[in-house]
Design brief:
Largest sheet: 8 strands, mixed
Radius of gyration: 21 Å
Number of strands: 11
Strand order of the largest sheet: 5-4-6-1-7-9-2-10
Structural class: alpha/beta
Order of helices and strands: HEHHHHEEHHEHHEHHEHHEEEEEH
CATH topology: Alkaline Phosphatase, subunit A
CATH architecture: 3-Layer(aba) Sandwich
Bound molecules: zinc ion
Distance between the termini: 40 Å
Length: 363
Amino acid sequence: MKRNRIVVAVLIFFLSDLAAFAQTPAENIILITLDGMRWQEVFTGADSALIKNKEYVDDVVGLRARFWHDQSEIRREKLMPFFWSTLAKEGVLFGNRTYDNNVNCSNNMWFSYPGYNEILSGFADDQRIKSNDKFNNPNETVLEFLNKQAKYKGKVAAFGSWDVFPFIINEERSGVPVNAGFKPATQTRLSPREVFLNELQVEIPSPWGGVRLDAFTHHYALEYMKKYKPKVVYIAYGETDDFAHNGKYDAYLKSAYQTDQFIKAVWEWVQSEPQYRNKTAIVITTDHGRGTIPADEWRSHGTKIKGADQIWIAAIGAGVKAQGEVKVAGQLYQNQVAATAAGLLGLTFTQDGKAGKPLELSK
Ligand SMILES: [Zn+2]
């Protein structure tokens, strides 16, 4: 009898604990962006026309062998296996326009700085954010907002491949450290991997002037997380956009695949660490879409490119109910990402009413 009572007590404790867990907002948040990654490839995999176009692909046979399948559900899994296994099973994906599930930029610029401002500040600011120039963002980002809260102060960090991020995040004013562009790791105690990354970053020429290869951004971020255990991390991968501008569809696809694997590595690390396991949410999105018609416009984006405002949002982790790919009609906006990230931590981010509302992820 006594033993039964203990069992019941333990069971009640366990169940109430589970119920509390389901409602507990996340304790850590990781925001991730893939620059200019089209919803078309995220939801349907490699494009049937582009993958065989010799103008955009060096090795058509090799690329098709790696990423092609007649069924789009299998094709997308070949391109982004983590998205379509773990994320689709345990998380949520918005933006498949085949189901009229739409996500759009609310800014009218459809290029990077305005997109990142909208993602991070929670509202479009077409009057002030209308170029990719290196000027400090007048708007407070959700990273800066969190860095002002006692619980998160000094526990916010950002990593980006593009060298404009220190300005978008306004590193100077926000106090959020931003390792972006070709900046090396500069903390006092560098890990052996960071020392090596610093060496390689100088030795390996980037194809671009202001953007480094994403492997550097990824590993700098991961090393920092292992060392300092920040509560709020932003990782901004950049290759997809630059390879697309270069008209390299093969490199664009390979980069999409690799970024998917980077995100997998972040998620697996998170779930292996007691401070993060089941207490961390990851939100993933993109700054803008790209064109489709005429075909060559897959390379471009901006106000004049039809469809370049079409984006997608995904999430997984604490506070995120497993809904998988959302197949119902709906309309979401880029300006909801910042409030969503804050909301997952149990905080309200409104920008005096200017910010988009948080997505309902736990419903
Ligand atoms: Zn671009």
